[in-house]
Design goal:
Layout (H helix, E strand, L loop, with lengths): L4 E3 L8 E8 L3 H12 L4 E4 L16 E4 L2 H11 L6 H12 L1 H9 L5 E6 L12 E8 L5 H4 L3 E2 L3 H15 L3 E3 L4 E6 L5 E7 L5 E12 L8 H7 L6 E2 L8 H8 L4 E2 L4 E8 L9 E4 L20 E3 L14 H4 L19 E6 H4 L5 E2 L2 E2 L12 H6 L3 E3 L2 H8 L3 H17 L20 E13 L2 E2 L6 E3 L5 E7 L15 H18 L6
Parallel strand pairs: 1-9, 2-3, 2-11, 3-8, 11-24, 12-21
Antiparallel strand pairs: 4-6, 5-6, 7-19, 9-10, 10-11, 13-22, 14-15, 14-21, 15-18, 16-17, 17-21, 20-21, 23-24
Helix pairs in contact: 1-6, 1-14, 2-3, 3-14, 12-13
Length: about 525
């Protein structure tokens, strides 16, 4: 068997015993541990990184909820395009109906204040109006910079994680950081009976799990080799965290897990820092409001840039309805003649008026070894080399390495579209368009940047990881992003909802099993 699986027999000596082991301390792992503890289990929660929170803590923290689970199911079914079984989607939709009350209950320990934000799905599909967002707006005496100085992102994620952390502490759950799971201990038939962990000092310890193991250790954003094998386009850069390296996926595979959705990641586009050692992550472009097809008139925030390929020509609508989810997909074109991806990198182009509007980049990370802020006027990024500045488009083309005539023609055509408020090439909403005409001009390399992966081991509606033979692997569960239910289009706030829903299910199911001893 793989070294990721340790065969169990009577000779194996365990160093410790728990009812449930949870691997990964982000939103999903925290909720899994809380749920298992509330069901009466003694829980061990381990996290391989020095700081908990995963990528969850960088998020906006809006928990997608519903008052209409039938409508939510209809929407999820349509947007997953047959790639996820109905019972799994049904469990997610039904769980979303309970989220507002559940989150409010957890928040009592912190005294958090809430707002309910009415907002539907991202596309005009059946059930689109079924969703709303449960959002923590403030917590008394909580300062994100003080509690989580290694985190930079949206304001809501740290508040949600703080709430979960306080609930973990209140329940006395055993938490161990810098403690990766190195392998699962399983009987010859695949039944999981424990895990081998590595302590911060490097000691290997074998932990018996009397009832089950929950893998909530995220996707494979930080594993370049897995990206090469599962995705056509390359390179793609993670925007938030280096810790998600597919560990849980590979451990599940070693026990025969089936995989799904491996192609699908939640991704946009953005910048790279010239000093990759100083800042190895991707930097997403500024976040703009989403818009719904058919309601383009509501897209009224001007975005000052266009994107061009390596020939100097536009190749996409720079602002599709949900750019954070599908913005990376047009970069995937492969040219068999040149044996290259002519849109990786692509190039952003904007002018002086655009540079004055807002910071172009939006760094986010949960990593104490990096630090980066984006200047309000974008001048620091010119000095660092992220952005290039030129007095003319001809000069800018030379700096970017694209054809001068092509770039000038592209910008001229774009300005004509802006004057008419109609993008005749890619139907970008007129309200988002802005001319590029005031020197100096700016440009930058632009790369596919992902927020998180959706692929991983397949699971059923009870969060049991499913083998290639279509049966559940005994006592092995998944929660959160690791094998997400989202297999085609993403729902804003959906992964956060999924962390809560699947964590509750996985914790309850694992804790409810009889001991294997």
């Amino acid at each position: 068997m793989s070294t990721l699986t340790i065969p169990w027999d009577e000779s194996i000596a365990f160093d410790e015993e728990f009812d449930v082991i949870v691997a990964g301390y982000g939103f999903a792992g925290a909720v899994s541990a809380i749920s298992a503890a509330d069901a009466g289990a003694r829980v061990l929660l381990v996290e391989k990184m020095r700081d908990p929170g995963g990528i969850s803590i960088c998020s906006h923290g809006a928990v997608c909820s519903t008052r209409n689970p039938d409508g939510a199911f209809a929407y999820l079914k349509t947007t997953n395009a047959g790639r996820t079984p109905d019972p799994v989607l049904r469990a997610l939709a039904d769980g979303m109906q309970e989220l507002e009350g559940y989150v409010r209950g957890l928040a009592e320990v912190t005294g958090a204040e809430f707002m309910i934000r009415e907002r539907g799905g991202n596309y005009p599909l059946p059930g689109e109006d079924s969703f709303y967002y449960t959002q923590i707006t403030s917590i008394p005496n909580f300062d994100a910079a003080q509690h989580f100085p290694q985190v930079r992102g949206r304001p809501g994620g740290p508040m949600v994680f703080y709430m979960l952390q306080k609930n973990i502490e209140r329940r006395g759950i055993d938490v161990r950081l810098e403690t990766p799971v190195r392998g699962l201990i399983a009987k010859p038939g695949g039944e999981v009976v424990g895990a081998e962990i590595e302590t911060p000092s490097g000691e290997r310890r074998r932990i018996r799990s009397r009832r089950g193991v929950i893998l909530a250790c995220g996707g494979f954003e930080g594993n370049v080799e897995m990206q090469r094998q599962y995705w056509q386009m390359t390179p793609v850069f993670s925007a938030a965290n280096r810790g998600n390296t597919g560990d849980g996926i590979r451990m599940a595979q070693a026990l025969g897990a089936n995989l799904w959705h491996m192609w699908h990641f939640h991704g946009s586009y953005g910048f790279r820092h010239p000093d990759a050692e100083r800042y190895p992550l991707g930097i997403r472009v500024k976040r703009f409001p989403d818009w719904i097809p058919g309601l383009e008139s509501r897209a009224v925030v001007q975005a000052p840039w266009i994107l061009v390929d390596q020939r100097g020509r536009r190749f996409m609508n720079e602002f599709p309805p949900y750019v954070q989810d599908t913005g990376a997909r047009p970069f995937e074109l492969f040219d068999p003649v040149t044996q290259s991806f002519p849109r990786i990198p692509a190039y952003m182009v904007f002018d002086e008026l655009g540079s004055r509007r807002f910071p172009m980049g939006n760094p986010a990370y949960n990593d104490r070894d990096v630090t980066l802020s984006w200047s309000r006027d974008n001048k620091t990024e010119v000095e660092s080399g992220i952005l290039r500045r030129a007095d003319t488009l001809t000069e800018l083309a030379g700096l970017l390495g694209v054809d001068e005539a092509a770039l000038e023609a592209t910008v001229a055509r774009w300005n004509r579209f802006c004057a008419a408020r109609k993008d005749e090439e890619f139907d970008r909403p007129g309200g988002t368009m802005m001319k590029i005409q005031r020197p100096p001009y700016y440009g930058a390399e632009i790369w596919p940047v992902l927020s998180n992966t959706q692929g991983g081991p397949e699971h059923d509606a009870r969060q049991r990881i499913v083998s290639v033979e279509s049966g559940p692997i005994p006592r092995l569960f998944a929660a959160g992003e690791m094998g997400s239910s989202f297999g085609h289009l993403y729902l804003a706030g959906g992964n956060i909802a999924e962390c809560f829903v699947t964590g509750r299910i996985a914790g309850r199911e694992a804790a409810g099993l009889a001991s294997w001893e």
